[in-house]
Amino acid sequence: MACYFFIAIPIILVSIWLGGRNIQLEAVGTKQRFDWIGLVLLSWVFVSLSVAFANAGNNGFYSLSFFSLLAIFIVGIIALFVHYHFSEKKILNFSLLLRPIIGLRWLNFFILQFINIGISFVLPILAQDYLNTEPFIAGLILLPGSLLGAAIAPLAGRLYDRRGIFLPLTIANVSMFLGCWLFYFGTPILSISSMILIYVFLRVGFNFGFGNTLSDASRQVTIEEKADINSLFNTFQQYAGSIGTSVLSAIISSVQLRQDAASGLLTAQGSQIDFVLLAILAGIGLLTVFISQRLKRRYTSMKSST
Fold first, then answer.
1. pTM for this structure?
2. Per the UniProt record, which residue ranges are transmembrane (predicted)?
């Protein structure tokens, strides 16, 4: 496996060399200084929460160490809030989230990525431990859904351009909601083929909403704020995937700590808890769609009346 990384190194070096020779862009100066304190505090928040759930996977959710790390996370949140309130330098423009439509889109964006990466982590483990599938086959379970999801992305963008954001986001969140419940109720009779079909359904729905969520949020800001909202959403896109795998793996690991049944059965039970959690999050995502649609209609009626 390590040889693949060594093969990639010359490709990366050649790419850097070609870019340095052919891309000549003059740096645009700025008087704004980088927010190093904000970076440290944001890293504190992200890392402490991830480590807390990793610790829960090893020691359980009722362990003192888990609650201690959660306390450290809360202290980090408070410190970041105080720094953001009083400092002129800001690592991310969190004030954009105070605008209702943008805040709701951000939450939906985070939830969609959390479910997408999280369930992509759970399914191969479930296939290996519960269905006794070979690791190679377990990994291939995700391939059809990933390919069809990517193929549907242009259609999703076209639907957004023609019909607005409500329909594609509704399709996305309903698909995620139903897909998670299908996995939950279908776990006792799950097979490789049914797992592939449900994941295809779920992943196609994901691609209807994920890219369009950021696109619609970007329409709610000025040109000067485009970079801020992109950096904000991209940062939490990466963290949604990271914390998603941390939380879901911690749940499965904490169930396996009981050791009162076969390992495969405990993995299935932990996975079912994961599916319920993801279904609840998908329901929250769907709720944000309806709330934002109602807010948009209210704003439109207020503008027309004036």
1. 0.85
2. 6-24, 36-56, 62-86, 106-127, 133-153, 275-295
